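Researcher: Next entry: HTH tetR-type domain-containing protein (Deinococcus piscis).
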Amino acid sequence: MALPHSRRDRHKQERLERIKRAAWELFSTQGYESTTVRQIAEQADVSAATVIQHAGDKAELLLLVFNEAIGQRIKNLDVPENASLDVTMLRVFRPFLSFYQEYPELSRAFLREFLYGKSRWQEQEIRQAEQFIGFLTGIVKTCQGRGEVRKDADPLLLGQLFFLLYR
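Model: Predicted structure:
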């Protein structure tokens, strides 16, 4: 992420980072349902209005912090170069499944808000999902080139199916 140039933009970004850290800390320690925007504001040392202005409501904050957590795991994926498709997919999905297992209540809330809620961060989450599907499609194509996947199989469709099974 490029650093904001103006002092005002830097302060705005710093406030948003404090809000996200506070939200994650409270969501992960006391649970999503038990956390309020007011508590997040107090933890971040800002007003509740500032939280809403920068990040939106509690549901939007959950999408925002989950998007970052998932993005970090995507960035840090360790994909074996010549492993079979099944071994590769297990290695790809293990960090996500471990994360969801560690935070089951938050994961359920995240999926509920992503699938049924309306948020300004949903588009960002959709873009991230599309990029991840593209990544999975690339793995399928590589395995197709090695003869592990039938040549007439649609790599994009298989990438989407792997993503759906994961989700």
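Model: Note for the record: The mean pLDDT is 89.
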